[in-house]
Amino acid sequence: MRTEKEIREEIFEKVEELYELRRVQAQFIPGKTRINYAGRVYDEKEMISLVDASLDFWLTTGRYAKQFEEELAKFIGVKYCLLTNSGSSANLLAISALTSHKLGEKRLQPGDEVITTACGFPTTLNPIIQNNLIPVFIDVELGTYNVQADKIEEAITDKTKAIFVPHTLGNPVKLDKILELVNKHDLWFVEDNCDALGSEYMGQYTGSFGHISTCSFYPAHHITMGEGGAVLTNDVLLKNIIASFRDWGRDCWCDPGCDDTCGKRFDWHLGSLPLGYDHKYIYSHIGYNLKVTDMQAAIGVEQLKKLPTFIEKRRENFNLLYKKLKQYEIYLVLPSSEAESKASWFGFPILVREDAPFTRADIVKYLENNNIATRMLFGGNLIKQPAYDCIVYRMQDSLKNTDLVMNRLFWIGVYPGLTEEMIGFVIDLFNSFLDNL
Q1: What CATH number corresponds to the domain at position 312?
Q2: How far is 57 from 196, CA to CA, in rounded Å?
Q3: How far is CA 318 from CA 142, 348, 369, 383, in A?
Q4: How many domains does the chain have?
Q5: Can you give the residue range of the structural domain that contains 285?
Q6: What average pLDDT does the segment 314-335 reach?
Q7: What pLDDT score does 26 carry?
Q8: Domain check: are 337 and 288 in the same one?
């Protein structure tokens, strides 16, 4: 009788054979083949890892999740990583954790203010609102499209308790300035690192600066699990609180399938429960079930091995676009970044100047008609979105630049699946559009 190991290896060989069969790609045909703004990049190793996890049939969080958490934490340079089912859930967990009673006087309470930006993705803003906190909007810089860090201090009041901002399209915010304010005013700092995995600031990875940071592993992002996200921290108390909110709100910290790691499972006396009530069923927070499956984590383990290569390819594609489009700065505002930063770019943002002889709609239509995918900077000015008509917020000064982003900015892809030939075709299209004005 064959062993399980032998059977698995035979299955893996068939998976590799299937991958090779599918790998034969159609020839790139300029103008016919779609050039996406983002996408998954993988090989047979991710497929084999996924099948391996499925054969375990553990289904929920397991060995692959533990491996991924340890390896991502080590890569970014933090102590703890907790996987969750999406980057949006990661943001929800990060802000919800800061409302925990276990933080004492430092906890966020309804009516407290959180400094953020209205320029970006809605699930940076949503957890602030969902936790009955007040967002305070700061405008963004043109070029970096990050929060104007120099304008934050004038927005701080006695009600200000936290700063929660994204690194827009992988471009690091002015972290030294923000950390100065965080320390000066004793604020929480949460980094939305969902679009910036692998970006650096002063030689340190983003995601390692905040009290908490978040990542996303949606297929468009730097690495993928299909769906998935992570919350990272150096603080063991925050780590345990985040795990509680993620895992139904329970007080127990045992991993799935494990019992009594505290050694006193039936000796706790919490709340108004009877002495000795099973710690696995004691709840210290009003939480969720936002765990990831081990099959998703199995894909992530292999993706993480490719991350350094992915980062370099993103930078190469970005630099090639920048070099070739620089001649058109009379019409276009090209992206810029802080001198201290080294971005792991999610995309290449382009702002059409007000006096350009064409509109954003004109050039976007031209690119899309030639099968070049474009995207807006997510929700533009979020307070103009119908979902936020009735929210309570405060604005520090106007959001003039945020409105410019909403009306004139678009971005194109730099992801590792784009070949030099594809980037060359994109540049040729810009040339044909802009040289004939």
Answers
A1: 3.90.1150.10
A2: 33
A3: 18, 6, 22, 30
A4: 2
A5: 48-295
A6: 98
A7: 67
A8: no
Q: Has 221 been annotated as catalytic? A: yes
Whole-angstrom CA distances from 60 to 286, 294, 424 are 21, 6, 44
Which entry of 101, 167, 211, 221 is annotated as an active-site residue? 221
Q: Which of 106, 140, 118, 75 is nearest to 301 (CA)?
A: 75
Which amino acid does the sequence have at 394?
R
Please indicate, yes or no, whether the overall pTM of this predicted structure exceeds 0.85: yes
Which amino acid makes up residue 290? L
Structure tokens of 437?
């004005």
Which stretches of 339-382 are assigned E, i.e. beta strand? 341-342, 347-352
Give the model confidence (pLDDT) of 95-154 as tens digits.
Answer: 999 999 999 999 999 999 999 999 999 999 999 999 999 999 999 999 999 999 999 999
Residue 185's domain is classified under what CATH number? Answer: 3.40.640.10
Assign 396 a pLDDT band (cuts: 50, 70, 90).
Answer: confident
Q: Does 301 fall in a domain? A: no
Give the pLDDT band of residue 340 (cuts 50, 70, 90). Answer: very high
User: Same domain for 253 and 358?
Assistant: no
